[in-house]
Amino acid sequence: MTNSELLDSLDANSFYIEGAEIADSKAPKVPIERRWEDRRFRARLVNPANRRKLSVIIVGTGLAGSSAAATLGEAGYNVTCFCYQDSPRRAHSIAAQGGINAAKNYRNDGDSVYRLFYDTVKGGDFRARESNVYRLAEVSLQIIDQCVAQGVPFAREYGGLLDNRSFGGVQVSRTFYARGQTGQQLLIGAYQSLERQIAAGTVDMYTRHEMLELIVVDGRARGVVIRDMVTGEIEPYFADAVVLATGGYSNVFFLSTNAMGCNVTATWRAYRQGAYFANPCFTQIHPTCIPVSGDYQSKLTLMSESLRNDGRIWVPKSGEDKRDPGEIPEEGRDYYLERMYPSFGNLVPRDIASRAAKNVCDEGRGVGPGGLGVYLDFADAIARLGRETVETKYGNLFNIYAQITGEDPYQTPMRIYPAVHYTMGGLWVDYDLESTIPGLYVTGEANFSDHGANRLGASALMQGLGDGYFVLPNTICDYLADGPFPKIDKSHPAVSVALDAVGARIDKLLSVNGSRTVDSFHKELGRVMWDYCGMERSEDGLRKALTRIRELKKEYWSDVKVLGTNDELNQALERAGRVADFFELGELMCIDALVRRESCGGHFRVESQTPDGEALRNDDEFAYVSAWEFGGDDERPILHKEPLVYEYVELRQRSYK
Ligand SMILES: Cc1cc2nc3c(=O)[nH]c(=O)nc-3n(C[C@H](O)[C@H](O)[C@H](O)COP(=O)(O)OP(=O)(O)OC[C@H]3O[C@@H](n4cnc5c(N)ncnc54)[C@H](O)[C@@H]3O)c2cc1C
After folding, report:
1. Which of 83, 253, 289 maximizes ligand 1 atoms within 8 Å of its Cβ, making it the mutation to test the pocket?
2. Which residues form the pocket of ligand 1, taking CB atoms under 6 Å from any ligand atom?
3. DSSP-assigned letter for residue 142
4. What's the DSSP call for residue 44?
């Protein structure tokens, strides 16, 4: 029996072992509106003089990391911060375009903390933890005030108030924005605060330094192994606590809207050291991206969801209609989102809009090369608002589109198609944002905490900044109150083991000397992930993917070619380590998707759909967070379920009709 025949014959259970249930023990058992206040009150504090004796490592300088580093530095802790870019402000957060949510209700359109909480739980298809989401909605108010105080140039309306627009899955306008550069402006704000602390001496910043291992001593996270990406030097760094703010893992798909450097290594290394990885299969496919145009591409480009405020999405009613869009009259067009979801129209959540686009293309009504595109049309908006207004709101996005496609979106509709964009899964954390390894905290996209099976637009920036400015500083103190912990140095056996493991892995990658590039393997892995663990997943497809990923992983370690040495700037080596981790992650994603035999949010199992093709949840069996524990190399991972209990939002089938 071949390996693939063997796998085909096995039950899904044979891919994993079921472990004990897991629970969040930190959210206080008081009414939801009082939980965060109660937790802050009960968390032990560290007085300012003692903070100077405590140290924290923060890996990552995106919105989640730089906000945390600046805040903890200002509080007086000794912070050491790392990023792999040449400047903290080049973190991937800088790419965020459309906006950041907050329940300020400036538009007086019925918004509230409770509504933001409700929308987020429903938008996530009832697979997020209520306590965390409610707190996120609460701190959203503070985030905007903090950013305004820093000078973030949010768009303003004529009366002088901050302007708002709408994002998918909601019927109010609560998205604050700075044209199509919201992430950049927010990051400049956080970066300035971080730089201030660097100048004040509370934060030591190491750019072009990559974390390759977590150091765990006596069951606590006590440090990281870092490679200096310019010299290749490998050094351990120690602290009383470690925070990972290392972003998401969409690049496992090779093609995604994420920055090229985004990877899973930091969280994956922590997983291998004992931190549980939650809901790895929950990935977000964004409906409005520029379609793939050829095999040579290594990156996809997002057209912000904000465009759905004014752009109308359509395809020809008939697949035979090959006329130019401008020549197709109204009666020949199918504004399918407006038709299928009249209440939310073009602003349905991303998972729903993406699937609808895929369906019309599968029906043969897609437009552009290969029929893999739908129109996003601004003709009505330009007629109603005037070109100047449209340009003011979205000008930079229109420019990006024109530069990439050579088409003028003011004259002809944009063509868009779904692409991988965001990962809801990540390291499991409790209400304090602490992982299953004591002293290891995880913030921003790197954790799994707030978005369930589908993130609503403009909620990632909110979560990253909420975690860094307001949540972590109020919870990590409870842990640090027991510090400082005993000093450790290089001679500690746990440190030598971590250093040796990093060295051995690098040596191995450099010594294979095979025939294929890292990128060619990555591309093939990405294709398998997209085909079988992308917009649609099936039992059969996931089993095929698992077989192929395991074969590919084996080939990788015997046939990859990594040029150069460790003692120099070596991007091939950097990528080689990241892709090796992507193979392991891809496998866990497929196992997670296989085990979850229901559809929810972005996780669409073909076997579980309503008669009209919507995702069909199975709350009786799957209303849980899957938290995976590393079982060992070539061993099965262990699944711990965290049951999800809904006390405030009624569990029901989502409807945006
Ligand atoms: C094109 C695009 C547009 C988007 N627009 C929006 C939007 O309008 N609104 C919204 O809410 N969300 C948006 N998002 C999502 C949002 O931008 C991200 O989820 C968010 O910025 C992630 O922030 P972060 O701080 O968690 O991680 P990141 O910004 O990804 O930062 C990760 C940091 O970790 C560091 N790092 C990672 N691994 C290591 C390692 N091993 N060693 C050392 N350092 C490491 C990196 O150097 C970096 O500093 C968008 C995403 C994309 C791709």
Report:
1. 83
2. 59-65, 82-85, 91-93, 95-100, 182-183, 210-211, 245-248, 257-258, 262, 265-266, 302, 304, 421-422, 444-446, 458-461, 464
3. H
4. P
CA angle 27, 650, 115 (to 5 degrees): 75
The region, left, alpha or beta by phi > 0 then psi within -120 to 50, assigned to residue 439 is: left
C-beta separation of 433 from 448 below 8 A:
no
Q: Distance (Å, rounded) from C-alpha 419 to C-alpha 250?
A: 10
Annotation says 597 is catalytic: no
**Pair type for strands 55-59 and 175-176:** unpaired
Task: Write b or e for each residue in 68-84: b if 16 or more Cβ atoms lie within 10 A of its Cβ, otherwise e.
Answer: bbbbbbbbbbbbbbbbb
484 upstream amide cis, omega within 30 of 0:
yes
The answer to whether 50 touches 26, Cβ cutoff 8 Å, is no
Least Cα distance to 291 among 423, 167, 421, 414 occurs for: 414
Cα distance between residue 333 and residue 597, in whole Å:
36
Residue 339 CA to residue 429 CA, distance in Å, equals 40
**Nearest 5°: CA angle at 84, between 210 and 554?**
55
**Does the reported pTM lie above 0.70?**
yes
Rounded to an integer, what distance in angstroms lies between the CA atom of residue 386 and that of residue 389?
6
CA 616 to ligand 1 center in whole angstroms: 30
Which DSSP state fits 471?
Answer: I
* Least confidently predicted of 2-11, 95-104, 236-245: 2-11
Structure tokens at 599: 């559809």
What pLDDT, on the 0 to 100 scale, is given for residue 5?
A: 52
Rg (CA), the chain: 24
Segment 248-287, tens digit of pLDDT: 999 999 999 999 999 999 999 999 999 999 999 999 999 9
Q: Would you list the DSSP string of 358-387? A: HHHHHTT---SGGG--EEEE-HHHHHHH-H
Distance between CA atoms of residues 442 and 245, nearest Å: 6
The per-residue pLDDT for 404 is 93
Hey, is 225 helix, strand or coil? Answer: strand
Taking each helix axis as running N to C, give the angle between helix 472-480 and helix 63-75, from 0 to 180 degrees, rounded to the nearest 10.
Answer: 60
The model's pLDDT over 572-602, given as tens digits with 9 standing for 90+, comes to 999 999 999 999 999 999 999 999 999 999 9
Paired tokens of 322: 């090959």
Angle at CA of residue 263, ends 259 and 266, nearest 5°: 135
Residue 210, Ramachandran bin (φ over 0: left; ψ between -120 and 50: alpha; else beta): beta
